[in-house]
Specification:
310 residues, mainly alpha, MetI-like fold, 2 domains, two-stranded antiparallel ribbon, 12 helices, 2 strands, 75% helix, globular
């Protein structure tokens, strides 16, 4: 009798456990759908907000005048809104950053993937990635208080605020991204390809440049493009160290303002809601959004087009 009761209890427990599992399997997908929907709706809300306010801006300022104008004077009775000075500052800072991040990051990735032992890789890679965890405002003060005075000892004509210093520091900040993503792409290349090239008489360096990097080129280029996207959207470094000069210039020793720095300045200043300068904030933000979106789409395209599956 005890055995019958025990078996019956076991059956009941199994049924209750099965019912709970069934309910969980039905609830979890719906919960995950709600979470995914929230993220999509948030993105749509951001885009709709930017578009709405940007349209209001272009009611006052012609589209061509905004994107071809070289004079940006948002304050005063004769206010002019030309975005080219901001575009120039953004592009210059990004180019300088990638001149620093791409070679250093790629060389670090090659060392970690092809030359470092497992023990050295486990030590160096986390240390390298610590750079990615440093707040960007710290990088900004580092650029302003250390890098700029150091550069002025070699370039006396360098302004106290300039685009060269924050560009270099942004490159240092992006190094972990380029190095980590490139190293992951190189590590995914099968060892059989390396061994085959070595068996044919290739040197370690020849294997790296002629076999490993071409095989991992999609991931490497994607890391470059994502690094560019990160540099375009950087805010605090340029807001602190690049200054707020809105003149249209190509001199990297002078103060320049980027799109993100302009957004910080406008949001922190006296820009009454509904004014043209207030709406210019959204027009610049929309331009920045489009730039970043294009960079991300290019990275995805490159990854899909040149991806190698082994």
């Amino acid at each position: 009798m005890d055995n019958k009761v025990s078996i019956r209890d076991m059956i009941e427990k199994k049924r209750s456990s099965t019912n709970l599992t069934s309910v969980t399997e039905k609830v979890i997908p719906k919960f995950l759908l709600i979470i995914a929907t929230i993220s999509i709706l948030t993105t749509l809300g951001i885009v709709i907000t930017l578009l709405t306010e940007t349209i209001n801006f272009f009611k006052d300022v012609p589209f061509l005048d905004f994107y071809t104008g070289t004079i940006l004077k948002p304050l005063g009775d004769d206010a002019q809104f030309g975005v080219l000075p901001l575009l120039t500052g953004t592009i210059y800072s990004t180019v300088i950053a990638m001149f620093v991040a791409i070679p250093v990051g790629l060389m670090a990735a090659i060392f970690l993937s092809e030359y470092a032992s497992d023990k050295v890789r486990r030590i160096l890679k986390p240390i390298l990635e610590i750079l990615a965890g440093i707040p960007t405002i710290v990088y900004g003060f580092f650029a302003y208080t250390f890098v700029t005075p150091l550069l002025r000892s070699f370039i006396p004509a360098l302004d106290p605020t300039n685009i060269l210093s924050p560009g270099i520091v942004m490159g240092i900040m992006i190094i972990p991204m380029v190095a980590s993503l490139s190293e992951d792409a190189m590590s995914s290349v099968p060892n059989s390809m390396r061994e085959g090239a070595l068996a044919l008489g290739s040197t370690k360096l020849e294997v790296t440049w002629k076999v490993v990097i071409p095989a991992a080129i999609s991931g490497v280029i994607a890391s470059f493009v994502l690094g560019i996207s990160r540099a375009i959207g950087e805010t605090m470094i340029v807001a602190i160290a690049s200054g707020s000069n809105k003149d249209f210039t190509f001199d990297i020793t002078q103060s320049m303002q980027t799109m993100t720095a302009y957004i910080v300045e406008v949001t922190g200043g006296e820009a009454p809601a509904g004014s043209t300068i207030y709406y210019s904030l959204y027009a610049v933000a929309m331009t920045l959004f489009v730039f970043t979106l294009i960079m991300n789409l290019i990275a995805q395209y490159i990854s899909r087009k040149y991806r190698e599956e082994y």
